[in-house]
Amino acid sequence: MQKARRVLLKLSGESLAAGAGHGIDDKRLAAYAQEIAHEAARGCQIGIVIGGGNIFRGMSGAARGFDRTTGDQMGMLATVINALALGSALRAVGCKSIVYTAIRMEPVARLYNSHEAIEKLKEGYVTLFAAGTGNPYFTTDTASSLRAVEIGADYLLKGTRVDGIYTADPERDPSATRFDEITFDEVYSRNLKVMDLTAMTLCKENNLPIVVFDMDTPGNLSKLLGGDPIGTLVHN
User: Fold this and answer.
1) Residue 215 phi/psi, 5° resolution?
2) What is the three-class DSSP state of 181?
3) In what order do the strands lie in the sheet containing 232-235?
4) Closest to 102 in 3D by CA, of 119, 80, 124, 87
5) Which of 53, 57, 145, 190 has most Cβ atoms within 10 angstroms of its Cβ?
């Protein structure tokens, strides 16, 4: 991975819950804020999309009787809660941050505008993009790909609990091996579960590389942005 001027960091909501499985873990939130703030202070422009699965997941809501549109809207609101929490944690450590939402909800956050968001990135703000794309049936993976393309990110960084992309699920198959890098076409042909197909196609068509890495290990974001070969690079 070459030195990045601007990145879009995709975080899962579940990661904020740490071992609890739900809610927001204060220590995990503070650790993320410290690491992100450190990289922002070093000059990297950082946009963030965070999921809401630690609070509510739209698909699971549909399975429990909610109609899909309502379930997805509830999931969008969950991402707003997480973005507000991380934005506040960033400000607590002296890092400028701003939250944008894809659906209007002032004064909670600003309505997303790509031109304004880019200006804020240039001014040193960590910009958080919440409420997905604002539409049901689209995941936060797709939202992260869309926002990354819109802001002109050099990379989409997908922070997960595993250290890259494997030939199989490493938690179930101990013989699975990790890729250092892989093409979008090979991800498709191997049917690897990296991001949903809409998100992957958007990145492929816009020549936006993805790096999948372990965000839960302290220091990994700094290592990655510093050029250390961690995680898996997905490219054309």
Assistant:
1) -85, -20
2) strand
3) 110-111, 97-101, 126-130, 45-50, 6-11, 155-160, 210-214, 232-235, 181-183
4) 80
5) 145
* CA 222 – CA 219 distance, rounded (Å): 5
Residue 56 pLDDT > 90: no
The distance of Cα 169 from the centroid of its chain, to the nearest Å, equals 20
Three-state secondary-structure class, residue 109: coil
Which 3 state secondary structure label does DSSP give 100?
A: strand
The reply to whether the predicted model has a pTM over 0.90 is yes
8 φ/ψ angles, rounded to the nearest 5 degrees: -115, 120
Tokens representing residue 28 in the block: 């995990």
Residue 132 in this model has a pLDDT that exceeds 90: yes
All residues at 6 or more sequence positions from 228 whose CB lies less than 8 Å from its CB, including other chains: none
CA distance 58 to 79: 11
